Protein: 23S rRNA (Cytosine1962-C5)-methyltransferase
Organism: Hallerella porci
Amino acid sequence: MAKAEIPVIVLTAGKEKSAVRNHPWIFSGAIHQVLGNPQAGDTVEVRSAHGEFLGYAAFSPTSQIRARFWTFRERTPIDRDFFAALIDKAIENRRARGFDVADPKSAFRLIHAENDGIPGCIVDKYADILSIEILAAGAEKFRKILYEILVEKVHPRGILERCDADVRLKEGLPQRKEIVYGDVPKTPVEMLENGIRFDVDVWNGHKTGYYLDQRDARFEVGKFARGKHVLNCFSYTGGFGLFALQNDAKLVTEVDVSRDALQIADSLIQKNGFDKSKTELVEADVFAYLRKCRDSRKTFDLIVLDPPKFIESKSHLEKGARGYKDINLLALKLLAPQGMLATFSCSGLMEMSLFQKIVADAALDAHRDVQIIKRFGQPADHPIKTTFPEGQYLKGLLLQAD
């Protein structure tokens, strides 16, 4: 790639430190000068204030993250071969971790954005369907090439673009949801997770259709459910509840504000052959439901708190922290003696140390003596680059109270 062919971003003196450490983002405030006229998604060369080469990146003129690095290696063409090599590597890495693209019923994350070298690109496999989120201008520019390579390497039945997330607006990108290859059914896609059958609505489900990142936690928490009354809050389609039933829970109460999600949960209970008399589905706001249980002195043996993201930006951190404190306080008050609480945060700005402190403060206010017996993070198909700590967004604690 000839240097004269592409625009150049020159960083402000002293702002090159993160790039030198291979962090993939360049914020707008770090840029001193843009040489040339790059458009959204164009590849730019990044240089320090002293002219040192730092890498090639995708330009995003409307985002606070003004550029995202493709590579830190000089004279590397950002072309079809470049992306084919990245996708080959992602496939082989997943296979080494037990996730095989050839398995017709498996479900896992094949491309995890920056952590797999393709910033802003999420590729989730549900059986023979690929559901894809494109969230950044660079991946948007190369999306057709990415889809062609995925068809060659993975041989899916169909590819669905789930490019309907609000974050695209920050990148100046339009929202859309459409089939870009093959056939994607309007009916749910059936896949297997640790022996349990799930139906995934790739068209309308959360994110790309389902929360693959909680696979390990669902399995591990389920092991503690035997003989217990389990309360699954923000249950969505009932994943934690299904694994509790698989492990002979006495009763599982699923609570979610979405009637549609609860209807899917009900169908999955039947599809997996579980006893419907051991489940109750509650359509309610979780905070209100927990307060109602507190007021009626109801208790549970195992409670799961898997809420949506409470913190969208740094300005929401304090308010989000209060939300996590309130909900954990309520749950801890509802635990029976020796009861367990599995509590999670998917807010990337909520670090594990802060999350643990919030839960500890909630336990003190609830007058419960609590032990941490397990920590949770992202599964092996959601890797985290050591140079990109922001990639670690999911964290969880399994607690046991006095």
In short: The radius of gyration is 23 Å. The domain at 211-401 is CATH 3.40.50.150 (Rossmann fold). The first strand starts at residue 8 and ends at 11.
